[in-house]
Predict the structure.
Amino acid sequence: MRIIVKENYDEMSKAATNIVAGQLYIKPDSILGLATGSTPEGLYKNLVKVHETVGLDFSKVVTFNLDEYYNLPRENPQSYHYFMNEHLFSKVNINLENTYIPDGMTEDLDIECKNYDDLIEKMGNIDLQILGIGQNAHIGFNEPDIKFEATTHLVKLDDETIEANSRFFTSKKEVPEYAISMGIKNIMLAKKIILLASGENKAEAIYKTVLGSVRPDAPASILQLHRDVVIILDKDAAKLLPENLIEK
Ligand code: GLP
């Protein structure tokens, strides 16, 4: 794991932007794994800027989002479909037919999950996966569990996650209780992974990710077993990590 610590959120977002933009320059038909939440917003904003100013090209890019709320229509402003359109897809020259997000309104969950897995595999797996992290160390919506769920699946969200995400909804009651999420194997098969975290409330999750035992009750800890992970943090999120682990 490479661990990069930046002064603040903006610097963290810039460092992530350089990696993603670099990936697209080298391989314009990259398959990107995308995350939602407030953490990658700065990254998406910067990518839009790079597209507008120097023409970063998304025309051949394929994307797979990590997750979507279950039973929340895509027109709902809190859906991840809506988020991606608002923050990235509507602002760059991506072909919407190449953007994939689990269908939270599916009538057949098993088929939806299997098709998602099959498509990722058929495309040759993800080149660069972008991750945020939950306060309970979840990645995507892979909540702490007694085992690592390998493939795309339905998740019952933890109360802690519902609480944390209620800030986007008018009340906690409106946060969906379930979501569809890529599994740990889908994520681990990505060729390269970057994980972003900002703020003191992520410090413990980051500590467990980097230094905890690899256990399904801290899902992000599995990343210790991946050979190309870059963790990009701001100072607050890095607060519990020993200096010697941080890249100079
Ligand atoms: C959400 C998403 C994750 C995200 C995490 C942290 O529930 N499913 O992909 O990384 O929680 O969100 P935030 O960046 O808003 O703290």
Summary: Strands lie at 2-6, 31-34, 62-65, 67-69, 99-100, 128-131, 153-156, 178-181, 192-197, 229-234. The CA atoms of residues 4 and 118 lie 33 Å apart.
